[in-house]
Amino acid sequence: MELPVELIGAIENIMENVPTNRLATLVSDISKRYREGKLFINDKYLATYDEIIAYIVYRMPATYGAIFTALNCIKEVYRDFHPKSLLDVGAGPGTAMWAATSVWHDIDHITLLEKDENMINIGKRLSSNSHYDSIKNSKWLKIDLNGSFDIPKHDIVIASYSIGELDTNVQQKLIKKLWEYTNDILILIEPGTTYGFSCIKMARETMLSLGAHIIAPCPHDNVCLIKDNDWCHFSSRIPRSSIHMKVKKGKLSYEDEKFSYICVSKKNSQYDKKQNYKTSADKERPHNIGFMHKRRT
Ligand SMILES: C[S@@+](CC[C@H](N)C(=O)[O-])C[C@H]1O[C@@H](n2cnc3c(N)ncnc32)[C@H](O)[C@@H]1O
Prior knowledge:
The chain has one domain: 3-Layer(aba) Sandwich (Rossmann fold). The two termini are about 30 Å apart. It is globular, with a radius of gyration of 18 Å. The chain contains ten helices and nine strands.
């Protein structure tokens, strides 16, 4: 799995003005903040323009890989789906938009919600390099997900790596709101950690209580049997560029991004999920199509 070539070129262009050493220092600071759970500084996820560029160089390939892998699994089981519109929530640089358009080429109307102005500006710069008119003409809205906002319905609504960054007391309210803005499918993706999975599990319960039907990854709509101190995640293997290896000071030519996700639909589709999953499990799967790992602590 590779990022679209024009996205790789666009990322290389925006990082031109930031020296590699500085990027490496910023990447190390951001990783440390992630590990310590101190993501926000003065209510900003990434404080400066250069930090956002560092984030894009080091995180965008991995989150793109996770989203692309999840969407391909969804496409595999939700076959007759030809979405036209996409809402990307907590869009960051527009990662989910790039991944979704690579999976469903007919998407022609994209809206992105993001609160950070610098992130929006960089996201727009990246978008202008796309081969897809839908990405070039995408609509970026500066919106704080904690506040009130109103959006028309979209065929796909995706919140990737964003719900878990909100206060727990607003997460469920937002999920209910996103369900209202969904025409067909709602997808949530979070890091493959105990906390990331707990957000997904809470979202799963919330959406089932609203009448949602699960598309993936679970082959049933019943209560999730995974206990609170346990979690499940998938993995996506992403090749590392030479610049990524330099700024991350890594030696491996790839990284494995672990993620948890849930996809639900408003439609009670007629396909036989168990049959589909049996068929998928029988196939030899390439590494980047995703594996499920159930961890026990
Ligand atoms: C970890 S990044 C993920 C970006 C992107 N969705 C991806 O998968 O790569 C989280 C994004 O959510 C945005 N965000 C966090 N809290 C937000 C809020 N209250 N309103 C809008 N955006 C928010 C951050 O600014 C950041 O761009």
